[in-house]
Structure formats: structure tokens, C-alpha cells
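Worked Example 4.2. Consider the chain below.
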Amino acid sequence: MPRCLKLAPMTDTTIHTGRCFCGEVRFEARGAPRFVSNCHCESCRRASSAPSVTWAGFADAQVTLTGASLRGYASSPGVIRSFCGACGSQIAFRGERWAGETHLTVCAFDAPETLAPESDHFEAEKLPWSALLGASHR
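Applying the procedure from the previous section yields the following C-alpha cells:
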């Protein structure tokens, strides 16, 4: 039987912090995310070497990224993926399709357990053996 985790409600004063694997890149996201979702698209799968990536989407103004080793990669037209140049951890995604938003990888947060996915995106690109984990599938 799936385990359900009851989460404390997020307020506008909630501050979420996170970092890359080596700690050279750090970030802060203020307030509640616009969404938390698993992405199954091929680009996210290849960038992460995982069957999906869980993203928390915030307005650009809510997010601060710091670190001398922060690098960007134009993975496709209109998309920049940010990562740590020292350890390679994927940290953020910005795309023209989601203008004004910064998407942060949930597992890079210091408390990823507080950001459970609500949905799954690009389900048609999901690997056949991969599970859908959004709230609607629990």
C-alpha cells in the first residue's frame, strides 16, 4: 500500500534552500512553488540520466542562484539548463515556453520531502517500465 506523507502547508514566507552535490552552487526559493511535477520528456531523462525529473516551478523573482561554478547549457531552442560546473549536478531549468519561471530540481533541495509531486508531464514519453508518481496516481 502506498505511503502518504502529510505535508505542512507552505506560506508566502516559506524559504526553501538547496545546493548541488559538492555545495559550490546554492539556491533559495521564497514562497510556495507554482507546481511540483515529474517530467518524463526525453530531454530531462537524458540530462539527468534518470527515468524522470521532479521539478518545482517558481516565478523568477522567487529564486536566487549563487555560486562561481554555476554554468548553463542550451539543451534545445529556447531552453537553458543550469548545473554545477564542478560536480555536474543539474539545478535549474528555464525555457521560453515557461517565461518568467525557474524550475528547480526537487532532489537538490535541502528538504525534498516537503515538495511532493502533484502531477506528471510528458507522459507519452515515459519509459514503459517507469512509474507515474504524481498525486493523481497515488
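The two ends are 9 Å apart (CA to CA). The mean pLDDT is 89. Compare this with Example 4.1 before moving on.
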